[in-house]
Design a protein that fits this description.
heterodimer, A: 173 residues, five-stranded mixed sheet, 2 helices, B: five-stranded mixed sheet, 15 helices, 11% strand
Chain lengths: 173, 404
């Protein structure tokens, strides 16, 4: 049984290595609660890109305002479409219930490559979820944010611990 | 009979229609045909694509994808590039199906961060270097400059083909001519990417093709920094007499060849600088008569294939070194007497890595002044920062002999 735990630990550590570049290349959403049931939503791009983002907010919320260049967004009910033309961040403000239900869902497409994916909330990237602080500062350069570094460092530590435990006994099976 | 005004009106309308079609075909997304894809032109196109909800993979999105790429990498405008042969190319679309027929240009593209995704085939020699070009192992081959696979080239329908500008010019001219006759829309670029005098100009233009100016600036800083370190170490020193021998015994280099320039950059005086031929066959007696103070033997081709990135048969460095020292009459040569005979692998001198070989030679030519130069460190940095390869590949025993 112990052996299975060790193997699972190793798989987890390796998967962190594999996944961290994918996370680093994603668009990340941070939700910052404000006063009077308002929420500031910040979308952070991984680098300079031309992309389309579609965000769908849960029922019961209202899009109060959008901080993006004119002509580069469209609000249609609870759906917001953004066009990213090299910007590193865009923001919008929601008002709604005091105790939020449901989650914001978002997807993005890099227009130059056709690749895309789900907009990740900050907690999914390995960074702490922003609760009551100001929005995260823009990442200064492509794929150089702290998330992949911290993830990789964490993975190295896990690997070392697992490897040490293995080598202390019978070595790798 | 149709009234003249009516005919004129139809003609004008036809002209307007044609000019509009051509303009839109020229630069995708440039709806006002002012020659620039603006924010206000691109944003509605992207919003409309988002509204459609379709995945961005079909042919219908090609124009949008290209418009977005041009907006991002070429400031929304078409791009004019002048290659090393002096030919100007006006690019209206990003290149998406590229064939590269020489390793030097392929290496330079990698230095600039050009994605392999759009390179559809490469020359056979690059494929045969899996240690240096691991990502091209098993890639489609189009032969070589000297034996091109035309059928393959044409079947791949490239939008661009990269050939040498001055190396094997006749062969490259022939390839260009034949490919253009079958694929008139294919852009043929000519770059050398090995000559110190033109290397950064070549790399700069290639960077402009792919919108990689930022990475070029980093690459340029690397080369100019390394060269400046060499120059400041050797410039005021008397140049030692250097006999430089290629991988063909008693074949040297003269003024006009890239190797001659590299010897000069390292602070050496080429004893065959004034030979008539660029790569002169020299008389053994004339080598002795010119009393070289340093000998550099180049390896990596012909009878001297060993070492380099593959590291194979590394023991031959010592063997070849020994055979040079024992050439008839060479024991009297100043270079041999003073232990200044060196072997240098062409991988770090012949192509874009020349700055590494030049730094090694500067240390050999001027041990007192250039002893602090760190060619191995330079090599490691080049591999890790620009080639995405392990710096451990820069082990000196694979590239030089004797190792200090």
């Amino acid at each position: 049984m112990d052996r299975w735990f060790r193997a699972a630990g190793l798989v987890f550590a390796v998967s962190l290595f594999v996944l961290s570049p994918a996370l680093a290349a994603s668009i990340v959403r941070t939700v910052v609660p404000g006063e009077n049931s308002t929420y500031q939503v910040v979308l952070l791009m991984p680098g300079e890109m031309v992309a389309g983002i579609v965000e769908t907010v849960p029922p019961g919320y209202h899009v109060e305002g959008v901080d993006a260049l004119p002509g580069q967004f469209r609000v249609d009910g609870n759906t917001i479409r953004f066009v990213i033309l090299g910007e590193r961040t865009v923001q919008y403000t929601l008002t709604g219930k005091e105790n939020p239900e449901g989650a914001i869902e978002g997807s993005w497409t890099d227009i130059t490559t056709g690749q895309g994916g789900r907009v990740l909330s900050r907690g999914e990237t390995g960074e702490p979820v922003m609760q009551d602080t100001k929005p995260a500062p823009p990442v200064p350069s492509r794929q150089s944010g702290p998330a992949p570094l911290l993830t990789s460092l964490g993975a190295v530590v896990v690997l070392l611990v697992v490897a040490q435990r293995f080598s202390g006994r019978r070595g790798f099976p | 009979m149709m009234p003249r005004a009516c005919v004129l009106c139809i003609a004008v309308l036809m002209l307007l229609y044609l000019s509009g079609t051509l303009a839109s075909a020229a630069l995708p997304g440039d709806s006002d045909t002012d020659g620039q894809i603006s924010r206000m032109e691109l944003a509605p196109l992207v919003l409309s694509a988002l509204d459609s909800g379709k995945p961005l993979s079909g042919e219908e999105f090609r124009d949008l994808r290209d418009a977005a790429w041009i907006f991002l990498h070429w400031d929304g405008r078409s791009r004019t590039v002048t290659d090393a042969a002096g030919k100007t190319h006006a690019l209206e679309r990003p290149l998406r199906r590229i064939i590269v027929m020489d390793g030097e240009t392929l290496e330079t593209m990698r230095s600039l961060g050009v994605s392999r995704e759009h390179i559809v085939a490469v020359d056979k020699y690059s494929i045969q270097k899996p240690e240096f070009f691991p990502e091209y192992a098993g890639y489609p081959s189009v032969g070589s400059i000297w034996a091109p696979d035309y059928e393959k080239i044409i079947s791949l329908r490239p939008d661009a083909l990269f050939l040498y500008a001055s190396v094997s010019r006749a062969e490259c001219d022939e390839i260009e001519k034949k490919v253009r006759s079958s694929l008139p829309d294919t852009t043929v670029f000519r770059f050398d990417c090995y000559h110190p005098e033109t290397y950064l100009a070549d790399a700069g233009e290639i960077a402009r093709i792919f919108g990689k100016e930022e990475k070029f600036s980093e690459l340029s800083g690397f080369y100019t920094g390394a060269l400046s370190a060499v120059t400041s170490a050797v410039s005021r020193e008397p140049a030692p007499l250097v006999y430089f021998e290629t991988w063909n015994d008693y074949k040297s280099v003269s003024r006009g060849s890239g190797y001659h320039d590299k010897i000069a950059m390292a602070g050496g005086a080429n004893i065959f600088a004034d030979s008539a031929a660029e790569y002169p066959e020299v008389d053994p007696e004339s080598v002795l008569a010119r009393r070289p103070e340093v000998v550099v033997k180049l390896t990596g081709s012909a009878r001297y294939i060993f070492g380099g990135y593959s590291g194979e048969n590394g023991s031959r460095f010592a063997e070849v070194h020994g055979s040079i020292l024992s050439r008839p009459g060479w024991s009297r040569m100043p270079a041999v007497r003073e232990g200044r005979v060196y072997i240098l692998h062409n991988a770090v001198l012949g192509g874009p890595q020349y700055i590494i070989g030049v730094t090694y030679m500067a240390r050999w030519f001027h041990p007192d002044r250039a002893g602090d130069l760190d060619p191995q460190g330079l090599h490691e940095r080049y591999l890790s920062d620009f080639q995405g390869l392990s710096p451990s590949l820069a082990r000196p025993d694979r590239f030089i002999y004797p190792v200090e």
